Amino acid sequence: MTDETKNPAGEPARPAGSCCSPSGSCGTDGTADVQVGSFTTVYEVKGMTCGHCEGAVSAEISEIAGVGSVEADAATGRVTVVSAAPLDEEAVRAAVDEAGYELAGTA
């Protein structure tokens, strides 16, 4: 017995966001970094001024379980995180603090 979800026609349900074609793609060439079921969250981080800052914040956040990618931008103070599931904001706050910066919240 499986826990597979079925659609009204009795076929296996596709993950959210993949209803555009039978192959599950929405017309992309398959090179997108974001996978089905991933979550993208943009955080505001205070104190980043350079590439070293970006690297320090990215490295610490990357250590959180479930994080797939991190992109920090010192110019905007924003950090974009792609994860398998929503992240605990306190875990992100602790990681940013460990890097020496302050999490202001989500953008």
UniProtKB/TrEMBL annotation:
Residues 39-104 form the HMA domain. PROSITE patterns: HMA_2. One of its GO terms (biological process) is copper ion transport. InterPro entries: Cu-bd, HMA_dom, HMA_dom_sf. GO terms for molecular function: copper ion binding. It comes from the Bacteria. Signal peptide: none annotated. This is Copper chaperone CopZ. Residues 17-26 have a biased composition (Low complexity).
